Amino acid sequence: MTKSNSRESEYPIDSMFLDRWSPRAFTGEIIEEAQLLGLLDAAHWAPSSANHQPWRFIYGLKGSEHWEKFVALLDDSNQEWARHASVLIFVVSRTFTGAAGSAEEKPSYTHSFDAGAAWGHLAIQARLSGLYAHGMGGIKHEEIRQAFAIPEGYRVEAGVAVGRLADKSVLSERNQARELPSQRKPLSEVAFNGRFVAN
Predict the structure, then answer these.
(1) What pLDDT is attached to residue 142?
(2) What keywords tag this UniProt record (predicted)?
């Protein structure tokens, strides 16, 4: 077992998996685009089915002319805290393989799975770089599609806020109460030897 960051694993794992968590309290400081591109570079080295690499990342840096547009595309409850991040990212996946409109175009069964792997790489690289990443389902999916002219065949998956950790006192009372590394279900509730359990 491994202990770190008020968490404990059942089996020995690298502590980076316990140290990674999704805070809401960010300092709001500006970070250089090159630092963000390092995170996205790590993300794009994720494994993918037949190496199709379906992930796409649209990003806005705090302090840029795009920032308020990105903030406005989050659900209101996420705008409250994520506006203090340093970067906002929308993860999009390509839902097909082959050239669009060609005889080779086929649906991709694993596009979301692969995009999720890329997000995981981004989150770990953020932590290794002294930053934190918080993934969000609470985004305006259809408005994002329209705002960036995302065509059919691409799925808006999720949003990500990236920044440096701030004291939780910068958050609303409601979010202060939620600002701690979450625990996990016992491994036995999600991993089954030779059978499946619906729970």
Answers:
(1) 98
(2) Oxidoreductase
